[in-house]
Amino acid sequence: MSENDQLPDITAFLASSVHDMKNSISMMINFIEDKLEEFKVKDPQTHQQMGPMLYEVRRINNNLIQLLTIYKVGNMLYPFDLTENAINDFSDEIWHQNKPLIDTHGIQLEMEFPEGLSWYFDQLLVSGVISHALNNAVHYTQDKIKLVIREADGFLEFRVEDNGKGYPDAMLQAEEKIKHGVNFATGSTGLGLYFSTMVAKMHKNRDKVGSIVLENNQNSGGCFILRLP
Q: Cα dihedral sign for 177, 178, 181, 183?
């Protein structure tokens, strides 16, 4: 095969396809959420039955967004936007983004953060990480999820806590492998964890770098932690 006959780089085509799929699924999510509002009062049983459907569609959408973002970051195409964000406003947006899914599962969402706190981070990336963690918590929790945002040891800490049985060993081991630099291409780590770790490490302040932690509480439940400098 001559140089002129070489196949083009397929990654650009894949990225374009992922973008198109993401847009189509986003339309499906909007449709389902609108219908959920209709059924919430007039047909509670159907409202509850649609919960797993919304969970799965949002999970696919999150995966596509993560894949597209990883591609853009890897090809230096992502416009990293480090701006000051009021935590009050950020929390409100997270609440409205995730409340339809959480409501259909009958889960209580509690949010805790200090008034007046603000921090510099990429709002879209961090919102994606926290929404992904909340989506996972819906799967693992019994009936409660708590999002705590606080300043701790010079970092902004996001904690997504549930009251389920805790993270399975496979997820905890995957988080440790990511810390030790396992290549994502090997398929030995989860996409969501890789994406979250990538986003955390993109946030730097002098000698401090962001990180994620997965842990199981002693009493019950798992906790996803994102720390930003």
A: positive
- Residue 40 and residue 97 share a domain: no
Region of 66 please: left (phi>0), alpha (psi -120 to 50) or beta. alpha
Lookup result for tokens 């049985």: 165
Instruction: State the chain's maximal CA–CA distance in angstroms.
Output: 66
pLDDT in tens, 149-193: 999 999 999 999 999 988 877 777 766 656 554 444 444 447 888
In a domain, 120, yes or no: yes
Instruction: Report whether 155 contacts 229 (CB < 8 A).
Output: yes
In this structure, the answer to whether residues 148 and 85 fall within a common structural domain is yes
The model's pTM is 0.84
Number of domains in the chain: 2
Among candidate residues 56, 221, 217, the one with its CA nearest the CA of residue 143: 221
Picking from 75, 82, 102, 87, the residue whose alpha carbon sits closest to that of residue 12 is: 75
- Let me know whether 99 and 157 are in one domain: yes
Rounded to an integer, the average pLDDT of 101-121 is 93
